[in-house]
Amino acid sequence: MARVGLTPAAVTEQAARVCDEEGFDRLSLAAVAKRCGVAVPSLYKHVGGLEALRREVGTAAAAEIARVLGDAAIGRSGADALRAVARAYRDYARTRPGRYAALQQAPRPEDDAGAAAVFYRSVEVLASILAGFGLPDEARIDVIRWLRGTLHGFVDLELRGGFGLPQSVDGSFEVVVEALVQTLRNWPRAEDPEQEPDGSAGLG
Amino acid sequence: MARVGLTPAAVTEQAARVCDEEGFDRLSLAAVAKRCGVAVPSLYKHVGGLEALRREVGTAAAAEIARVLGDAAIGRSGADALRAVARAYRDYARTRPGRYAALQQAPRPEDDAGAAAVFYRSVEVLASILAGFGLPDEARIDVIRWLRGTLHGFVDLELRGGFGLPQSVDGSFEVVVEALVQTLRNWPRAEDPEQEPDGSAGLG
DNA sequence: ATTCTTTTCTAATAGGATTAGCTTTTTGGC
DNA sequence: GCCAAAAAGCTAATCCTATTAGAAAAGAAT
């Protein structure tokens, strides 16, 4: 019964590795216990159970990707910042696919408020970049949702093997990022409302 | 031992309902067997196991959404078709969330070629719509990846509860769709390559 | 040194997936 | 109509994982 000196953080880290190496859906207490060199029930002294462990991994990953995105944005602004952050986002998902999957579990209302704050940090990075594009205030949230969706969707499809054709996925991503940049540059401003010639819902 | 008259299709349908009502990750043979009014091992006469059943649901969903998207596109073209298909896509995911999750499992190489073809049908719908926008040939695949990613990303984040703020998600989606339309209209054509004034990778 | 707390363990329970093998129903050929 | 073969269902058994309960050992604190 030699003590291993486990901590909640250590357990979460091993769990995160299981996620990255085997897939988020293959995360099990059994696999984590084996890595920690401990019997399965011992984990319960450090985490609340499998469900709780999944959330721990997600929260840790949210903190991690926020730092990665923030670092990518340092010293850049506008389109440059957007390009750097978009690439950092995709790189994170590709190098840490299990953690990336884990952070798609949105914090539940009953989770502590700190968890929600951690998840929000990445959004703040995007928001600060968008500030440089001079968008109308009402468009803020819509634009962030659009940006998050575009990045997540591309990366998620890529990770799941959804892009089957042989054409370079790196190239496609560059195209997507440039499309984002152009769309932001052309975003309808208050001064040119006639960008909507067809009476549809409009962008703002 | 009265026979229930189960078929592979019936089992898959019940499984799909479990996915929609309880979540794709909660799909279990136990839940499906209960719905079918049958003991768990009986299911093995109709499906290969849990893993195979997941894939059956995914393939059935792929066929279903392809039909839904195709129907939405009938009688429309260009931006109108894109709007209709985008809304149909989101509606499908919202009304059939478990099936939508199931169809994110890309067919594996060892699956039969028919399965891959089914998954490809939705892509063909998108491709046929894009044909109306007169895009350069080299951009085809990149644009389809961008479009799929944008739709999937938005819808996936929405389904997972990733849009926490009170602002209308319907409204944001309309904005996203209009952004797609505008981006396609402004897509760099061979005749105006100077749309890239900053020496970056470019859109094509 | 002794006591208290914490970590780890073993044992036991419960639930799901899977396989083996038996029974009943249905079907097809005669 | 009858009989064999196939198909569909069942029970029993095995294995794996999660979880809880409670004992034992290690470490910390007095």
UniProtKB/TrEMBL annotation, chains A, B:
<dbReference type="InterPro" id="IPR001647">
    <property type="entry name" value="HTH_TetR"/>
</dbReference>
<keyword id="KW-0238">DNA-binding</keyword>
<protein>
    <submittedName>
        <fullName>TetR/AcrR family transcriptional regulator</fullName>
    </submittedName>
</protein>
<dbReference type="InterPro" id="IPR009057">
    <property type="entry name" value="Homeodomain-like_sf"/>
</dbReference>
<dbReference type="InterPro" id="IPR036271">
    <property type="entry name" value="Tet_transcr_reg_TetR-rel_C_sf"/>
</dbReference>
<feature type="domain" description="HTH tetR-type">
    <location>
        <begin position="5"/>
        <end position="65"/>
    </location>
</feature>
<dbReference type="Pfam" id="PF13305">
    <property type="entry name" value="TetR_C_33"/>
</dbReference>
<keyword id="KW-0805">Transcription regulation</keyword>
<dbReference type="Pfam" id="PF00440">
    <property type="entry name" value="TetR_N"/>
</dbReference>
<keyword id="KW-0804">Transcription</keyword>
<dbReference type="InterPro" id="IPR025996">
    <property type="entry name" value="MT1864/Rv1816-like_C"/>
</dbReference>
<feature type="DNA-binding region" description="H-T-H motif">
    <location>
        <begin position="28"/>
        <end position="47"/>
    </location>
</feature>
<dbReference type="InterPro" id="IPR050109">
    <property type="entry name" value="HTH-type_TetR-like_transc_reg"/>
</dbReference>
